[in-house]
Amino acid sequence: MAEKVVTELSQELVDFLQGEKLVFLHTTDHETGAPNVAAISWLLAVNPKLIRFAIDPRSRVVSNINKDGRVSVAIPGPDSCYSISGVAKADTERLEGVALNMIKVDITVDEVRDVMFYGAKLSAEPKYVKTYDPKLAEKYDTEVYTALKKG
């Protein structure tokens, strides 16, 4: 059976990416040209063709994107694992209303693939625990998602 490739997120994926999810961002290292992977969670689907995430402007991810904007995002869930490819553009402006020094990055979606191996489906989402003050974590989450939704 041929692999199904589509050019935008399904409504199910858009809905899934409306809050904290553990995803893996793949960029090309700006110095070595080697693959680079970063785990991120402050990400949301704005619409079927646009994904936005928040990141510290000092992150290596930003340098990588500024040199080569081609990226992919591996998303475990819902039920499967998806690879979303596109072109990222890092903003230079600090996210307004966010206590942390963060910028937004927009990814224009070019391709969505279901990359789960044959005969399997995910039975649970990956879980993680924040290891810093829960009230501070909630404050940052609220600030970041409010800013990302504003655009």
From TrEMBL:
Pfam families: PNPOx_N (PF01243). SUPFAM superfamilies: FMN-binding split barrel. InterPro entries: Pyridox_Oxase_N, Split_barrel_FMN-bd. Residues 10-94 form the Pyridoxamine 5'-phosphate oxidase N-terminal domain. Signal peptide: none annotated. This is Pyridoxamine 5'-phosphate oxidase N-terminal domain-containing protein. It comes from Effusibacillus lacus.
